[in-house]
Amino acid sequence: MVNIVIMRHGEAEPLIKQDSQRQLTSRGKREALQMAQWLQSCYNGFTDVWVSPYLRATQTADIMLAGQGSDCQLLLQSELVPDGNPLIVHNLIDAKLAAQPEARILLVSHMPLVSFLVETLTQPGQTPVFSTASLYCIDYQPARSGHLMEKVAPQGMALMTS
Question: Apex CA 54: angle with CA 66 and CA 92, to 5°?
Answer without folding.
Answer: 80
